[in-house]
Amino acid sequence: MHWMKRLGPSLLIVIALSGAGVPARGAPPLDTVRLTFQPLAINGPLFIAEKAGFFEDQRIKVTWVPFNTLDQAIPVLVQGQLDVTYGLSPAFFNAVARGEALRIVADKGHVAGRGSLASLFVRKDLAGTMKSVADLKGKKIGLPGNYGGLAHFFLVKALAAAGLTFDQVTAVFMPATVVLAALQGGAVDAAFLGIPLDTQALERGIGVKLVDIADLVPGEHVSFVIYGRSLTVDHRPLGVRFMVAYLQGVRRYLEGPTPRNVAVVAEYTKTDPEIVRKTGWAPIYPDGFIDVNRARRYQDWLFDVQLISVRNPISTVIDTSFAEQARAILGIASR
Predict the structure, then answer these.
(1) By residue range, what is the domain housing residue 193?
(2) CATH (domain of 306)
């Protein structure tokens, strides 16, 4: 190593940097997958899959693309500047109706037990006069996401059960990350709060739980993994590899608030680890299962309220083959 002593420090730095990021000889290059980023706890499986190296094991490098609302991601997915998004919106079904090769490929959250996903909250100062969904008449309701999104769908169901219609309240749609602040600041009277915002609302005295989403729509999906054309058509094997890493992330996430899971979710969402530890952990099917009938009913509702003009054949909406192949690779039994 005597030759290194004769080199100046600047040249040594150049030599070191020239080798940085270069894969080992013979190692295949990593494929980049552009993925929607939102700092929400329900996205924990994706965060864990990256942090634990599951994506890297599948020769994938994730590039996170931030969006305030998920409906903004659909046009970008259609344009081929994004590979994977999640959630569900009228924009997705309308794109499929135009022949775009977007597909739902796996569950990314569904309603199970109380306290595990989201609840409808009212402001603390209104709790004395708003004790049921029927008391929401004439009030402002903060909804994460977009008009026609799943929060809208769930609110309509809740209001109908209480004898109210959607036009009897004022819905205020906003990014999921600002709903708690809107409730605290008085911009809305009530709001749907997902994990861990619901725990924060209770502990900080911002709101009082009115009804749990599990009492409104038991079993409903609240989010799906959605692939764009780059994975459904152009690079299907890459889509399978992404699904393998995702399901590995889901299975680790479902271990619950272990120290390593808490640390990852807290890091990506910039949330106090103690809040992350205490809050619910979203129910997600470990095999990527999709309840086709529930997805169809949501599409039917969008058609009934004229947010979409076409009922797509469900085969053009959902593609289960990626999860099926990933299950075979991972040795996960089929349902």
Answers:
(1) 118-216
(2) 3.40.190.10
Neighbouring C-beta atoms of residue 215, cutoff 10 Å: 14
Domain edge (last residue) among 216, 232, 252: 216
Sequence-ordered list of residues with C-beta below 8 angstroms from that of 13, at least 6 positions apart, any chain: none
Neighbouring residues of 306: CB distance < 8 A, sequence distance ≥ 6: none
Quickly count: other Cβ atoms within 10 Å of residue 121's Cβ: 27
Distance CA 254, CA 240 (A): 21
In a domain, 90, yes or no: yes
Q: What are phi and psi of 174, to 5 degrees?
A: -160, 165
Burial 36-64 (b: 16+ CB within 10 A, else e): bbbbbbbbbbbbbbbbbebbeebebebee
Supply the pLDDT for residue 308.
93
Q: CB atoms < 10 A from the CB of 308, how many?
A: 21
Q: Is there a single domain that holds both residue 254 and residue 123?
A: no
Question: Rounded to whole angstroms, how far apart are CA atoms 62 and 170?
Answer: 39
Residue 139, domain member (yes or no): yes
Instruction: Return the pLDDT at 140.
Output: 96
Give, for 194, the enclosing helix (H) or strand (E).
Answer: strand 190-194
Summarised one tens digit per residue, pLDDT across range 265-277 is 999 999 999 999 9
Least confident span in 12-26, 101-115, 287-301, 315-329: 12-26
